[in-house]
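@channel sequence for tomorrow's demo:
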Amino acid sequence: MPRIWGARSLAPIYPGKTDLPEPVGEAWLTGPLSGIPAGPLKGSLSEAWRNMPPEWRGTDMLSPLDFHDFPLLVKFLFPTDQLSIQVHPRDAYARQNESPHARGKTEMWHVVSAQSGANLLLGLVPDADQRQFLDCLENRSLENLFQRWPVNAGDTFYVPAGTAHTIGAGMIICEVQQNSDLTYRLYDFDRVDASGNRRELHIEKGLAVLDFEDRRGGKIAPVILPSSDEAKKSLMVACPYFATERWDISDAHHTKSDPSRFELLIVLSGSGDIQWHGGTRAYRVGECWFIPARLGQFSVLPKECTSLLRTYVPNLSQLKAHLARNGVAESAIANIVFDEAHDGQRKTA
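structure tokens (generated this afternoon):
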């Protein structure tokens, strides 16, 4: 996706994408037009989702109301300049003000790489209110009202809908989110595009969804997960819309799918093969693999050390029970599993 703040090289995620004619900010791995290159559902993801056997989706994914469209959007972001200061709506606002089937946009960021000094703005400082926000917007000092987070490779940030934010330059991020592209731009640093035009702002809608009291967004400390072999697994964050883990694998790792839901494996680094009953295919960095709920046993066979994100739509009560059974303290679960969708009226302070 071309973006004013994007890069002309997408290496090392996509080493063949260099010297691009225009800056590219986002690589969508599971957008509506994303392609499935092989298998019985070869074609666009949106078409594949409509035609997918129920047992591939999983027993928790059968509601036509909740899962009319593919529920997860996965991207890589390549910022070389600061993104606009923006905010995303919750589901209820999106349905009422955009379209009946619109989704809100809660997301998470996992930092793949970061240059020295890279940072982002996420969440407002304590006690910030709408009057201060409007004053700072008027005098172009809005950045002063935000919490600034230094960024390092391996960091994870949770960004619930209603939380204002912007990403800075000098990093590559893997983003997992609700499958929505609804963004309300609040401030764009007076930039102009290649044609000399400023990008549209959405002040009225942005202020309508901006929550001045919800402080859940921020950097998340991962929780170590049990593993049957030498694979290192961590839960990065979970909410009603997605749960995301990081797997670091150096030797063969054998696992199995969950019949209740499909999952995605996003390759951050490394190469090797994914093997299942009846097939083997090579994987490489930058790919996103769809693992059907009915697949059963499968193996990740790295040829070099591999880092993956595994993401899926969770049953949060089952996830919390699983973590508790494996000795994770209740306080640690509360800091990484966000089980309230906050889909009602936002608080303006």
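heads up for whoever presents: The first helix runs from residue 45 to 51.
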